[in-house]
Design goal:
mainly alpha; Helicase, Ruva Protein, domain 3; 2 domains; 7 helices; elongated
Length: 136
Protein backbone atom coordinates (compact mmCIF):
# COMPACT_ATOMS: atom_id res chain seq x y z
CA UNK A 1 0.00 0.00 0.00
CA UNK A 2 2.92 2.33 0.71
CA UNK A 3 4.09 1.90 -2.89
CA UNK A 4 0.67 2.98 -4.15
CA UNK A 5 0.70 6.09 -1.93
CA UNK A 6 4.23 7.01 -3.00
CA UNK A 7 3.32 6.53 -6.66
CA UNK A 8 0.17 8.64 -6.29
CA UNK A 9 2.12 11.40 -4.55
CA UNK A 10 4.71 11.44 -7.33
CA UNK A 11 2.00 11.51 -9.99
CA UNK A 12 0.26 14.39 -8.25
CA UNK A 13 3.49 16.39 -8.06
CA UNK A 14 4.19 15.72 -11.75
CA UNK A 15 0.63 16.63 -12.74
CA UNK A 16 0.81 19.88 -10.78
CA UNK A 17 4.23 20.77 -12.21
CA UNK A 18 3.25 20.05 -15.81
CA UNK A 19 -0.35 21.23 -15.37
CA UNK A 20 -1.78 18.05 -16.87
CA UNK A 21 -4.37 15.53 -15.76
CA UNK A 22 -3.33 12.04 -14.76
CA UNK A 23 -5.59 9.12 -15.62
CA UNK A 24 -5.35 5.87 -13.71
CA UNK A 25 -6.63 2.79 -15.48
CA UNK A 26 -6.72 -0.76 -14.27
CA UNK A 27 -8.67 -3.76 -13.16
CA UNK A 28 -11.17 -4.07 -10.34
CA UNK A 29 -8.29 -5.15 -8.09
CA UNK A 30 -6.52 -1.85 -8.81
CA UNK A 31 -9.73 0.00 -7.97
CA UNK A 32 -9.93 -1.79 -4.61
CA UNK A 33 -6.33 -0.86 -3.83
CA UNK A 34 -6.98 2.76 -4.70
CA UNK A 35 -10.16 2.88 -2.64
CA UNK A 36 -8.33 1.49 0.39
CA UNK A 37 -6.61 4.86 0.79
CA UNK A 38 -9.11 7.74 1.08
CA UNK A 39 -6.52 10.31 -0.01
CA UNK A 40 -5.79 8.41 -3.24
CA UNK A 41 -9.47 7.59 -3.79
CA UNK A 42 -10.37 11.28 -3.63
CA UNK A 43 -7.96 12.09 -6.46
CA UNK A 44 -9.55 9.84 -9.06
CA UNK A 45 -13.10 9.62 -10.36
CA UNK A 46 -14.28 6.06 -10.94
CA UNK A 47 -15.43 5.51 -14.49
CA UNK A 48 -16.11 1.97 -15.64
CA UNK A 49 -16.03 1.21 -19.34
CA UNK A 50 -18.97 -0.94 -20.38
CA UNK A 51 -18.28 -4.19 -22.16
CA UNK A 52 -18.65 -4.09 -25.93
CA UNK A 53 -21.66 -5.57 -27.66
CA UNK A 54 -22.16 -6.33 -31.34
CA UNK A 55 -22.52 -2.93 -32.97
CA UNK A 56 -21.32 -0.73 -35.80
CA UNK A 57 -19.20 1.14 -33.28
CA UNK A 58 -17.42 -2.10 -32.33
CA UNK A 59 -16.87 -2.93 -36.01
CA UNK A 60 -15.24 0.49 -36.51
CA UNK A 61 -13.06 -0.09 -33.45
CA UNK A 62 -11.97 -3.50 -34.78
CA UNK A 63 -11.29 -2.12 -38.26
CA UNK A 64 -9.30 0.77 -36.81
CA UNK A 65 -7.20 -1.50 -34.64
CA UNK A 66 -6.57 -4.00 -37.42
CA UNK A 67 -5.47 -1.12 -39.68
CA UNK A 68 -2.60 -0.51 -37.26
CA UNK A 69 -1.29 -4.06 -37.64
CA UNK A 70 1.02 -5.29 -40.41
CA UNK A 71 -1.62 -7.46 -42.11
CA UNK A 72 -3.96 -7.23 -45.10
CA UNK A 73 -6.99 -5.04 -44.49
CA UNK A 74 -10.38 -6.54 -45.24
CA UNK A 75 -13.53 -5.00 -43.79
CA UNK A 76 -15.46 -7.95 -45.27
CA UNK A 77 -13.70 -10.19 -42.75
CA UNK A 78 -15.40 -8.30 -39.90
CA UNK A 79 -18.76 -9.97 -40.38
CA UNK A 80 -21.32 -10.94 -37.74
CA UNK A 81 -19.72 -14.35 -37.05
CA UNK A 82 -16.29 -12.75 -36.62
CA UNK A 83 -17.62 -10.14 -34.18
CA UNK A 84 -19.71 -12.63 -32.19
CA UNK A 85 -16.78 -15.04 -31.81
CA UNK A 86 -14.43 -12.20 -30.87
CA UNK A 87 -16.91 -11.11 -28.19
CA UNK A 88 -17.16 -14.70 -26.93
CA UNK A 89 -13.37 -14.98 -26.63
CA UNK A 90 -12.90 -11.55 -25.06
CA UNK A 91 -16.14 -11.20 -23.10
CA UNK A 92 -16.40 -7.73 -24.67
CA UNK A 93 -13.55 -6.30 -22.58
CA UNK A 94 -11.49 -3.79 -24.56
CA UNK A 95 -8.08 -5.06 -23.41
CA UNK A 96 -9.05 -8.64 -24.17
CA UNK A 97 -10.42 -7.68 -27.60
CA UNK A 98 -7.09 -6.07 -28.44
CA UNK A 99 -5.18 -9.10 -27.17
CA UNK A 100 -7.27 -11.53 -29.22
CA UNK A 101 -6.99 -9.37 -32.36
CA UNK A 102 -3.22 -9.15 -31.89
CA UNK A 103 -3.00 -12.93 -31.52
CA UNK A 104 -5.17 -13.41 -34.61
CA UNK A 105 -2.90 -11.09 -36.59
CA UNK A 106 0.16 -13.02 -35.43
CA UNK A 107 -1.59 -16.23 -36.50
CA UNK A 108 -2.25 -14.68 -39.91
CA UNK A 109 1.43 -13.85 -40.24
CA UNK A 110 2.41 -17.37 -39.11
CA UNK A 111 0.02 -19.08 -41.54
CA UNK A 112 1.16 -16.73 -44.35
CA UNK A 113 -2.39 -15.46 -45.10
CA UNK A 114 -1.52 -12.05 -43.66
CA UNK A 115 -5.12 -11.83 -42.37
CA UNK A 116 -6.88 -11.68 -39.03
CA UNK A 117 -10.14 -13.31 -40.04
CA UNK A 118 -12.51 -15.85 -38.56
CA UNK A 119 -10.16 -18.76 -39.31
CA UNK A 120 -7.34 -17.07 -37.42
CA UNK A 121 -9.70 -16.23 -34.54
CA UNK A 122 -10.74 -19.88 -34.35
CA UNK A 123 -7.10 -20.99 -34.15
CA UNK A 124 -6.47 -18.43 -31.42
CA UNK A 125 -9.66 -19.49 -29.61
CA UNK A 126 -8.61 -23.14 -29.66
CA UNK A 127 -5.36 -22.21 -27.89
CA UNK A 128 -6.97 -20.01 -25.25
CA UNK A 129 -8.18 -21.27 -21.90
CA UNK A 130 -11.94 -21.10 -21.53
CA UNK A 131 -12.75 -17.62 -20.22
CA UNK A 132 -16.47 -17.43 -20.90
CA UNK A 133 -18.37 -16.60 -17.74
CA UNK A 134 -15.26 -15.99 -15.63
CA UNK A 135 -15.50 -12.19 -15.60
CA UNK A 136 -16.57 -10.95 -12.17
Amino acid sequence: MADVRLGATRHEALANKLRISIVAAGTREALHVMRADPQIASRFEKLELPVWTESQELRRFIAGYLALLPIKRSSAAIDKRFVEYLLELSEGVTGSIIDVLRRAALQGIADKTQKAGLVQLQVVGAKMPSVVGQRA
